[in-house]
Amino acid sequence: MSEPSETPDTVKTQGYFQPLGKIGHYDLLKKIAEGGMGSIYMARNTKDKTVVAIKVMSPNYVHNPVLLKRFEQEYRVASKFNHPNLVRALEFGTENGLPFLVLEFVNGESLGVLISKQGKFEELEGIKIIAQVAKALNQVHKDKLIHRDVKPDNILVGKNGIAKLTDLGLVKEVSVGDLNLTRSGRGLGTPNFMAPEQFRDAKNADIRCDIYSLGATLYTMLTGELPYKSVNPLETWMKKVQNDLPTPRELNPRISERTDWAIRRAMDSDPDIRPSSCREFVEDLVGKSTRKSTVNNAALEKANIKPPSEAIWFMAYNDDQGKQHVVKGTAKAIRRSFKDGILEDPIKYKLGKSAEGPFEDMKIFPEFRDLAVHLTKPNTNANSKTKQDGEPTPITIPDESSKITKEPKRPQTETPSKIYYVVGAGVVIAISLIIYAVISLR
Ligand SMILES: Nc1ncnc2c1ncn2[C@@H]1O[C@H](COP(=O)(O)OP(=O)(O)O)[C@@H](O)[C@H]1O
Ligand SMILES: [Mg+2]
After folding, report:
1. Ligand 1, pocket residues at CB < 6 Å
2. What is the pLDDT of residue 383?
3. Closest Cα partner for 2 from 100, 68, 91, 82?
């Protein structure tokens, strides 16, 4: 875990505010927000004069054991991390019977407020924020925890551009029952940003539900639209399991094909199709590996979210006699060959960075992953020509390249999980109709 000496958002007050009251050794300066469980104040530590945020539980909830547990859990989890992109919890206490939580103060606004104020984000700006939240989530996931409520309102963006994930009250350990923390008046997560399996099987949802929510957050940032807005929860779930959602590019044609694909992959109804980690999601967005270098804004700027096209790649394939051939080309040229249908079925080709190999599946490499991973909903944009990829560049193929022949397209088969979802949706509709019939007959 990284150890920031002092968080950049920790500010010292100049004494502008008259305190509203006192909690512990903190002067309450200003109410910042009315949250789901109580009020959030800006406050000043009377000892060291630093500014903090204090969440005070509403008197309406102090007898609700589930919400109390969540409050304590938020402290337990948020105090153990020391990550620049996670809001730290500093103290937990009770004042006049009301539990309160002291948090590092973020001098900025929630992403939800920013989106409603300024509308959609430019693609690179959006990716820079999501890459920071992805780092925070990676840390949470490494600790075998799931956040379960990733959404724009729970991401605070400081005036210094640093994004911090907050609201860790719903965190759950991977593969451990959830202590019924979801059974409360506050509900679990927000339907628009929740993965479909969180509706159906919240207890067994894994870190991939956070990846879904992170993808949905970027969707909203870049399109200015809430996914599955203005539909009721049942309809939301049904549409989610069918991936029935306008693509990001349909709503904002300025979004690059790569980002459109990466968001749709992260939001796929089938968790097996989503990236397996937040790091992989960022790789999908930037089109290059982040394994060695940590993704920082400079690296993103450099990658400019376009595929690095000039490096030479080596592609190995077997001919009909099982003899291996190796051809080479730039990423741009190889991608174009697949997009134009000169090469088909990426499964048959392995890629490497030298003529001698090692050669690995195309989906290992972020530069080509979008060609090799098929989403549940057919990728309608995948074969369209875009300015981003430029004009086709001839791939350097030796003589034996003539043996690369076009193969018939494999039929798209329904994945078993999709069938499962459709049957599940049918059962839910049937039950709803029966309940409706019984109510009408009374
Ligand atoms: N550490 C903080 N610094 C500054 N503002 C905060 C902080 N924590 C919360 N807020 C403000 O309060 C709002 C609600 O906080 P959140 O932690 O999401 O609470 P809730 O449990 O009510 O969802 C945030 O959107 C933000 O505006
Ligand atoms: Mg919140």
Report:
1. 32-33, 35-37, 40, 53, 87, 103-106, 110, 153-154, 156, 166-167, 169
2. 38
3. 82
